[in-house]
Design a protein that fits this description.
Largest sheet: 14 strands, parallel
Number of strands: 14
Strand content: over 45%
Structural class: mainly beta
Distance between the termini: 38 Å
Length: about 170
C-alpha cells in the first residue's frame, strides 16, 4: 500500500516523477512542477488522487493503465499532452478538475471507461478525446457532465470505435 500526502515534486527529468505499479494507493495534497515527462504514472493500481496541483508538465499529468481510480479536485496548468490519460481497460471517476493552457484535458482509450463531472477546460486545444490506440483493445468510453470549455480547437474528438457521451446535452 502507498499513502502519499503533502509532497512536492519539482524539476524532475526522469520518465515519470512518480510511478506506482500493482498497488493500492492514496495521493493527496501534493504539487508537481516542471516535470519533463509524466507527472504521475499508475500501472494496474487501485486508489484515490485528491487535491493536487500540476504546473508545466511536458507530457501527461496523470497517466493510468489497467487501473481503478477516483480523481478529485485537481488543477492542471500548462500540460504538454494529456492532463489525464486513461488506458488499457481502466475504470476511472473524475470530479472537480480544472485544466488550463494544455493540449488535452481527458483522454479515454483502449477499453477504458471514464466518468467525469465538473470539468473546466480553458485554452485547451482538445478538451475531451476517446480513441483506440492499441490493436489488442477496443475503443474508449468517456461520459461527461457539468463541464465547460473555452478557447478550444475541437471540444470532442473520437474515432469510430469509441464513445463520448455528453450527459448535459445527450449528444454522442
Amino acid at each position: 500500500n502507498v499513502d502519499l500526502n503533502n509532497l512536492k515534486f519539482i524539476n524532475i527529468i526522469s520518465e515519470d516523477a512518480l510511478n506506482i505499479i500493482s498497488s493500492t494507493f492514496s495521493i493527496k495534497n501534493s504539487n508537481f512542477t516542471n516535470i519533463y515527462f509524466d507527472g504521475i504514472d499508475i500501472d494496474f493500481g487501485k486508489g484515490n488522487i485528491d487535491n493536487l496541483y500540476f504546473q508545466n508538465i511536458k507530457n501527461d499529468g496523470i497517466d493510468l493503465s489497467g487501473s481503478n481510480v477516483k480523481i478529485d479536485q485537481i488543477i492542471f496548468d500548462s500540460v504538454g499532452d494529456k492532463a489525464i490519460s486513461v488506458g488499457e481497460g481502466s475504470n476511472v471517476e473524475i470530479s472537480k478538475i480544472n485544466v488550463n493552457n494544455s493540449k488535452i484535458s481527458i483522454a479515454s482509450k483502449d477499453n477504458s471507461i471514464v466518468n467525469a463531472k465538473n470539468v473546466q477546460s480553458n485554452s485547451v486545444k482538445y478538451p475531451f478525446i476517446s480513441y483506440k490506440k492499441k490493436n489488442e483493445y477496443g475503443g474508449g468510453k468517456l461520459i461527461i457532465s457539468e463541464f465547460s470549455s473555452s478557447n478550444y480547437f475541437n471540444e470532442f474528438v473520437k474515432d469510430e470505435e469509441s464513445i463520448i457521451i455528453d450527459l448535459d446535452s445527450r449528444r454522442n
